[in-house]
Amino acid sequence: DQQVKQNSPSLSVQEGRISILNCDYTNSMFDYFLWYKKYPAEGPTFLISISSIKDKNEDGRFTVFLNKSAKHLSLHIVPSQPGDSAVYFCAAINNDMRFGAGTRLTVKP
Amino acid sequence: EAGVVQSPRYKIIEKKQPVAFWCNPISGHNTLYWYRQNLGQGPELLIRYENEEAVDDSQLPKDRFSAERLKGVDSTLKIQPAELGDSAVYLCASSSGGVAGANVLTFGAGSRLTVL
User: Fold this and answer.
1) Is B86 helix (H, G, I), strand (E, B) or coil?
2) Banded pLDDT at B103 (limits 50, 70, 90)
3) B residues 36-95 lying closer than 8 A (beta carbon) to A
4) Which of A29, B68, B72, B114 could anchor a disulfide with B12, C-beta 3.0 to 4.6 Å?
């Protein structure tokens, strides 16, 4: 059962522009959400997180927005840099951590 | 500080053969996880340990998969016998607490298994 969904397998943006990665979930019991970034041949690394009691969390160029009523969260990267090119996984926690299928972001110079 | 260390990084075996993966978590991390990541999908939890106790193994295919975490530190994940569908990346992760709230997992680089 896919409780966490990332419907866009890939996204391409120009350097300096905004990247918006989206994630939808079905389980209203999820109370914490995270974004992980994965480079080839490496494990996922933690990027940013947000509690269900908040609707926004910002860390430098990265901002995560949570819309609980829509069961939707998004990751904004501004400005995008070529080094941001990676696969981004959305994850949600209830009793365990569930991951989306990932979105491959390509930032073109 | 060393991160989560996994070995081997790559393994190619024929079906019906056994295979084992090893994980050394971050020092002091009591919680250890094994995930499986199939191509084009996100990681899926196989088993979670709190110290040496397996507290969630509901997704572990117990007919062929087994895991252990002796002394609450290193862990091994074994598949016997392997099937073609077991080809995947097996990720180990660790964290300093239980699974709830603000917990952040640190992942190893993974062990890529190819079953021929």
Assistant:
1) helix
2) confident
3) 40-45, 48, 56, 91, 93
4) B114
pLDDT of B72 over the 90 cut: no
Q: A93, B99: Cβ pair inside 8 Å?
A: yes
Q: How confident is residue B84, by pLDDT bands cut at 50, 70 and 90? A: very high
Nearest to B5 by CA among B16, B28, B17, B21: B21
For testing the chain B interface, which of A51, A97, A99 should be mutated: the one with the most B CBs within 10 Å?
A97
Count how many residues are written for chain B.
116
Cβ-based neighbours of B39, under 8 Å, separated by 6 or more: B88
User: In the predicted model, is pLDDT for residue B98 greater than 60?
Assistant: no
A59 exposure class (CB count in 10 Å sphere: 0-12, 13-18, 19+): exposed
Residues contacting residue A105 through CB under 8 Å, at least 6 positions apart: A10, A11, A12, A13, A19, A21, A77, A80, A84, A85, A86, A87, A88
Total residues belonging to chain A = 109
Sign of the torsion angle spanned by Cα atoms B75, B92, A27, A78: positive
